[in-house]
Amino acid sequence: MDETQLWKGFLNADQKAFEGLFKKYYRPLYLYGYKIVRNTQLLDDCIQDLFFELWTSKERLGEVTSVKGYLFKALKFKLTRELRKENRFDAIEEEPNEWFEISHESWLIEQQTDHEQKERLTHLISQLTKRQQEALYLRFFSQLNYDEIAEVMKLTYQAVVNLIYKSVKFLREHLVPFLILLIQASLGVF
């Protein structure tokens, strides 16, 4: 079943559809949430609470344009609220590039074979803002579209397009010259 059918089934109190939603989205939600908070117990509790609240309030819910985007946004909201309750949100915000360590770099790094390339890419991604890192993660790792990212990040569509464009442009501008040097070095063209 696709996400729309699962959502409709869930709204009609179909327990199998609800279980299907949970099975389909638990891992992507966990991976996304882990970028926000490294407390696995808190993360797991928030995901469980999210699905519990979905089930208990299904009568008040309606159709959504993207189930995945809706769930990501709901989890981000829930985690943010929990972190504020625990007075840890301010401490996290003080380290803007450390709390959201993007796994997208893992995907990019796997495409590279040389250790220097991996180090360079990791360094470049760490130079992006947390918003840029989050936008890249949502776009390339979680495969959300621009509208879904805008909803999750509470930005306009154009702001998301600009954020991703600038991030990719920065990476391209700084990585391509480095790759050319590596290729020249490996060919002995100096």
TrEMBL record:
The keyword Zinc does not apply. Keywords: Sigma factor, Transcription, Transcription regulation. It comes from the Bacteria. GO terms for molecular function: DNA binding; sigma factor activity. GO terms for biological process: DNA-templated transcription initiation. Residues 21-88 form the RNA polymerase sigma-70 region domain. CDD domains: Sigma70_r4 (cd06171). InterPro entries: RNA_pol_sigma-70-like (IPR039425), RNA_pol_sigma-70_dom (IPR014284), RNA_pol_sigma70_r2 (IPR007627), RNA_pol_sigma70_r4_t2 (IPR013249), RNA_pol_sigma_r2 (IPR013325), RNA_pol_sigma_r3/r4-like (IPR013324), WH-like_DNA-bd_sf (IPR036388). The keyword Thylakoid does not apply. Residues 119-171 form the RNA polymerase sigma factor 70 region 4 type domain. NCBIfam families: sigma70-ECF. Belongs to the sigma-70 factor family. ECF subfamily. This is RNA polymerase sigma factor (Sigma-70 family). It comes from Runella defluvii.
